[in-house]
Amino acid sequence: MSLTQQDIDREIAAERAAYEKRLADGAPVEHQPRRDYAPYRSSVLRHPKQPPISIDVSKDPELVELRSPAFGERDITEIDNDLTRQHTEEPIGERITVEGRLLDRDGRPLRGQLVEIWQANSAGRYAHQREQHDAPLDPNFTGVGRTLTDDSGFYRFTTVQPGPYPWRQHVNAWRPAHIHFSIFGTAFTQRLVTQMYFPSDPLFPYDPIIQSVTDDAARQRLVATYDHSLSVPEFSMGYHWDIVLDGPQATWIEEGR
């Protein structure tokens, strides 16, 4: 029998109740989701079950990166962070500006870090050959961008509001609108991946992926804030979202997924 949304709702409620009991019993706050979070079936099936493989780099410190791509400031063009200018015509959808800072646990800015994003188009479809959603493609929107943080740790993207989409984990499963973020440190092996969501999305309670971040405060740190000062007159709405890489205010990162 296929899983229904009601089945997932019950599992989410049970996981939340179990977490609240652990807190009441003195357990620490869980900023990261458990890898065996049952309502998120695909994570349970694919998360690592073996310890990481150690690589001896004593003889060659760059051994671990021999097959990794390399990026630098000269690889970033002036339109890489503007997803509305990458084609001959305008993409379809509500234009938005997304800005924020990349920070360490003490609130210090992280400069010159490569930030990449990818997202669905305004109809909720990715420009990917394995995409199965039958929503229309937008020939003027690829849905990928990148930029480097400035001296104050700021990044900025111009794009379109992504649409929600079905993902077939269970009957009537829909993902809230979101943008994927990838952050590179000083090496490819330091790559971190997370997701940004939009305020007041009605799909939040039904999505086991965002609900896998069981702690309410940690989950709210994934939601951007509407910022009217970032809106561009006659052009785009503005959202602010900071990414904190460590400490008690850290942004959820897809660790080991």
UniProtKB/TrEMBL annotation:
InterPro entries attached to this UniProt entry: Intradiol_dOase_C, Intradiol_dOase_core, Intradiol_RC_Dioxygenase, PCDO_beta_N, Protocat_dOase_b
Q: Which PROSITE patterns match?
A: INTRADIOL_DIOXYGENAS
Q: Which UniProt keywords apply?
A: Dioxygenase, Oxidoreductase
From which domain of life does this come? Bacteria
Keyword Oxidoreductase found: yes
Q: What class of enzyme is it?
A: oxidoreductase
Intradiol ring-cleavage dioxygenases domain residues are 98-126
- The EC number(s) attached to this protein equal 1.13.11.3
The molecular function terms of the Gene Ontology recorded here are: protocatechuate 3,4-dioxygenase activity
Please name the Pfam families in this protein's record.
Answer: Dioxygenase_C, PCDO_beta_N
NCBIfam families hit by this protein: protocat_beta (TIGR02422)
- Family note: Belongs to the intradiol ring-cleavage dioxygenase family.
**PANTHER family the UniProt entry points to:** DIOXYGENASE, PUTATIVE (AFU_ORTHOLOGUE AFUA_2G02910)-RELATED, INTRADIOL RING-CLEAVAGE DIOXYGENASES DOMAIN-CONTAINING PROTEIN
This protein is called: Protocatechuate 3,4-dioxygenase subunit beta
Q: Which species is listed as the source?
A: Streptomyces doebereineriae
Give the gene that encodes this protein.
pcaH
